[in-house]
Hints:
heterodimer, A: alpha+beta, Phosphorylase Kinase, domain 1, 2 domains, B: mainly alpha, 9 helices
Amino acid sequence: xxxxxxxxxxxxxxxxxxxxxxxxxxxxxxxxxxxxAAANHSFVGNFVYxxxxxxxxxxxxxxxxxxxxxxxxYALNGEAREVVRDRDRVWCYIPxxxxxxxxxxxxxESGFPRILPADLEVLGEHYRFALGDTARIADRMAQxxxxxxxxxxxxxxxxxxxxxxxxxxxxxxxxxxxSIVEQYLFVNxxxxxxxxDAELESVTSREDLVWYGMDMPNMSKEVSDxxxxxxxxxxxxxxxxxxxxxxxxxxxxxxxxxxxxGLSSVSVFVKESKEGQSxxxxxxxxxxxxxxxxxxxxxxxxxxxEVPARTVKHLAEAIAYRP
Amino acid sequence: MKQTISDIIDRRPEAVDxxxxxxxxxxxxxxxxxxxxxxxxGDVIRGExxxxxxxxxxxxxxxxxxxPTVLAPGAKRSATAExxxxxxxxxxxxxxxxAAGLFAVAASLALVAVITRxxxxxxxVAGPELAAVPTPSAEAVQAPQVAGATGSDTQQAFASExxxxxxxxxxxxxxxxxxxxxxxxxxxxNEPLAE
Lengths: 323, 195
């Protein structure tokens, strides 16, 4: 009886070991599909964005035509704020503040941060992947992909991708207690077909808007030599970008470091503190975003990301000035 | 509970423990509001409600208006470059800010940061008023405090910088690879504005 029970346990363990990589591969394939779909499919739809017991309804249009991507995001509630962007630039309309801005983007030539297959392999060290059930979302069938964190230095993701195209129809950011911290949920979507230019034009009246604009792309430079060190990283996180640029509000130089585990990202901003300058320090939160701010060696250090409080605090405590 | 409501609306009864969620929706104010809001917003933007649409939207906004304290946005810069999309393709007219990350300026103006206090057993700190919404983590860490002078200038400056940094951070987040422009929802989101 004991041998039989042991045999069954071994069999179960072997089956699990055999199934786990398959589940990972399937889920990884779906992540790649979601990523590719975001860059390759045109669509028009409405979605709900919720966080902190708030719900916002928004309209989004994306047109991919001859490799050129154009998008428009429009708030359906309250003030009619809009964001319009293409591969290189962003226009933002804030009518309630009578302000509009156009700016150059800082991301890759594709218009999206990249997820490479190699990144996905690394992801497997810090997340567990599984395929969930299919579900009907926005009148379409969607496949659920569960991305569960291996520890509490990162949130989990529950993603629902359109089974036909791979487009993301619902995305839940989930904390370690299983609660949804932030959610995007399409309620209707039309995928493919022609999208008229008018769909991508801002509807905001340009009268009385104060415009901010730039003639040149943003001038930031990679940092190769810095006195700032992060002496202990949370598990799985690595530095992927370290740039220096001017704070556009105050015309002061700041350093910006980006750490990622391949899915979750944390930024560290370092800026010199002027004599007599005041500011808030400690932990704060907005939706899924946690931020921790402190002063180190006469500088403001702000750590921010869509990660648990523990992660930003860990990074804040690990940063040191070593000239 | 929000997940449960979402599952019900998604017509996934198998994911829902029959009976109990409906009782909570009927008796719990927050659950009831979430249920109502999901349906109202869905109905309104699907165009299934027309005659009373404005009223319904107003009701949704009323529900959303039950907000925690907000921090005011920062002061605008004085640059007043007049521009439009067509002008921007050939170079903007008027003054131009020669600085990086101008989109972050928009964020600092548009995004009114709702900052919550981290769990802390110490006495209330002076300075910015902090939102009284539940924090997700039970981990006790230092609560936001004001280093140096206190006052509305500090809180405005922090809200402004928070939005600005959030926009800069958002350009590099890996998850943006999955949801694209949807991650800009934070910027377009209509938080109540403190005047």
